[in-house]
Amino acid sequence: MTYTFPKDFLWGGATAANQFEGAYNVDGKGLSVQDVTPRGGVPAKAGDHNPLITDEPTPDNLKLEGIDFYNRYKEDIALFAEMGFKVFRMSIAWSRIFPNGDETEPNEAGLAFYDKVFDELAKYGIEPLVTLSHYETPLYLARHYNGWANRDLIRFYENYVRTVFTRYKDKVKYWLTFNEVNSVLHAPFMSGGIATPYEDLSKQDLYQAVHHELVASALATKIGHEINPDFKIGCMVLAMPAYGMTSNPLDQLAAREFENQNYLFSDIHVRGKYPNYIKRYFRDNGIEIQFADGDEEMLKNTVDFISFSYYMSVAQAHNPEDYAVGKGNIMGGISNPYLESSEWGWQIDPVGLRLVLNDFYDRYQLPLFIVENGLGAKDVLVDGPDGPTVEDDYRIDYLQKHLVQVGEALQDGVELMGYTTWGPIDLVSASTAELSKRYGFIYVDRNDDGTGTLARYKKKSFNWYKEVIATDGASLYK
Questions:
Q1: Fewest CB within a 10 Å sphere: which of 112, 154, 183, 440?
Q2: Contact 278, 296 (CB under 8 A)
Q3: Annotated catalytic, 372?
Q4: First-to-last CA distance in the chain?
Q5: Residue 320 has pLDDT above 90, yes or no
Q6: Confidence class of residue 331 from pLDDT cuts 50, 70 and 90?
Q7: Which pLDDT band, with edges at 50, 70 and 90, does 328 fall under?
Q8: What is d(CA 269, CA 274) in angstroms, rounded to the nearest whole number?
Q9: Is 80 exposed, middle or buried (0-12, 13-18, 19+ CB in 10 A)?
Q10: Are 430 and 16 in contact (CB under 8 A)?
Q11: pLDDT in tens, 410-468
Q12: Which of 88, 157, 108 is nearest to 420 (CA)?
């Protein structure tokens, strides 16, 4: 049966400043935590002694140049428009606006750059969907304040969001406060700028940092709605459904407890308070969250919608040591014998996306937005009739199967705002800092050793996605 997606469905693609802008030290930009993780942010969980974290930027860090979107944004946005994008998810680099993060006055050159990007998107009728903090904590805040482990970051973040909300109040409607906010539990340096070595980071310190981020997110939501009541502000979580490895009730309980660690973040963003299940976890682990005056009331500033990334599912067991650990999973988990895996060990589960959509919507009855989904693969550039291209049928197959399940969820009654594939153009991987882990519809001629011309070439999937958008998804059912 052919299904047609709603006419107002927001089709597009998703990126992050640190993975594709480049120009890491241009026009007054300060360093971010990404500039000192040349091997990627996972598993770079610890402090400066971690060999994955360097003292200063090193030439082998591909993120320093990215794919040079900073200088090529017009060319790239024109390609997105050619595909028919209705929305483009991007992030603002915090350290491009406040180089250290704790300044009072912003860097005008940084603000002006995003003005130009938003104006270019507007020229093509593409809505920007802007992430305020996408794994881009200013490095100074990590080194001098220990990132989100320090409550001072709330006021620095407040100054930053007030600045950009005010500057772009007439150019941006859709905002996300933090990218994959729950990932701070597993990658605290990359996600939260926490410089304490991972092995020295207590659960108390980690969950106190989580609390600071949640309060800051609620504060951003409050400020945004005051500055422009038409803003739509969402949270963004890493969705990873968990299946019990067997029908043993203890395995099912292990899956539930794993998922609760993620639901914690969306529960607080949507319901405005800590859920009871986490209170028991805190008691059992000797965690006492320190609330400042006003925190409880601040958390009641809840989001307008829930956005999430979805790449894989995992399995869980009461005795996980009896099974193989899933390769490449940022949040752990056990390999599911019923699923195939990508080249990087991420298990491919289209039905899991339908389950996530239904679970989130049944739980919250708020609009949802899939803001990351895609397949990282080693593409090979070949000669085609119209010039160099990539025959990426494997990517088309992955996306087609996932989008058919999105269509099923819509028919289930889920309210879904849109879908942005991760990396519509090749960019540097956050987890491994490779460029060979390609996601895009557009091939970028740059290699893991830093060589390449940065020329852009359309892959086979470019025209496939263009047709999906043009037919409101009907072409998925050919």
A1: 112
A2: no
A3: yes
A4: 10
A5: no
A6: low
A7: low
A8: 9
A9: buried
A10: yes
A11: 999 999 999 999 999 999 999 889 999 999 999 999 999 999 999 999 999 999 999 99
A12: 88
Catalytic residue among 372, 391, 408, 415: 372
| Residues in the chain, overall count | 478
pLDDT at 326 (0 to 100): 62
- Spell out the residues 6+ positions from residue 433 whose beta carbon is closer than 8 angstroms to its own: 37, 38, 39, 40, 61, 62, 63
Helices (H), 272-342: 276-284, 295-298
For residue 44, name the pLDDT band (cuts at 50, 70, 90). Answer: very low
| Contact present, 307 and 232 (Cβ < 8 Å) | no
Q: Which residues contact 166 (CB under 8 A, 6 or more apart)?
A: 227
Q: For the domain bounded by 10-477, which CATH number is listed?
A: 3.20.20.80
From the CA atom positions of the chain, what is the Rg in Å? 21
- Cα distances from 389 to residues 240, 318, 392, 453, 459, in angstroms, run 32, 47, 9, 15, 5
pLDDT reported for residue 214: 98
Q: What is the pLDDT of residue 49?
A: 41
- φ/ψ of 418, rounded to 5, equals 180, -175
Instruction: Calculate mean pLDDT across residues 183-208.
Output: 93
Find tokens 């390449």 and name the residue: 452
Q: Which of 65-74, 321-330, 340-349 shows the lowest mean pLDDT across its residues?
A: 321-330
| C-alpha triplet 333, 339, 345: angle, nearest 5° | 55
Tell me the DSSP string of 218-237.
HHHHHHHHHH-TT-EEEEEE
% the chain with pLDDT above 70: 96
Residue 320 CB neighbour total at 10 angstroms: 17
Residue found by looking up tokens 């500033």 in the block:
301
What are the residue boundaries of the structural domains of the chain, listed by start?
10-477
Q: Report the 10 Å Cβ neighbour count for 365.
A: 9
Whether the pLDDT of residue 45 is over 70: the answer is no
β-bridge pairing 242-244 and 314-316: parallel
Task: Report the DSSP pairing between strands 442-444 and 456-458.
Answer: antiparallel
Section 102-131 average pLDDT: 98
Q: Is the pLDDT of residue 43 over 60?
A: no
Two tokens at 42? 């996972």
| Bridge partners of residue 236, in order along the sequence | 307
Q: How far apart are CA 119 and CA 16, in angstroms?
A: 18
Cβ neighbourhood burial of 306 (10 Å; 0-12, 13-18, 19+): buried
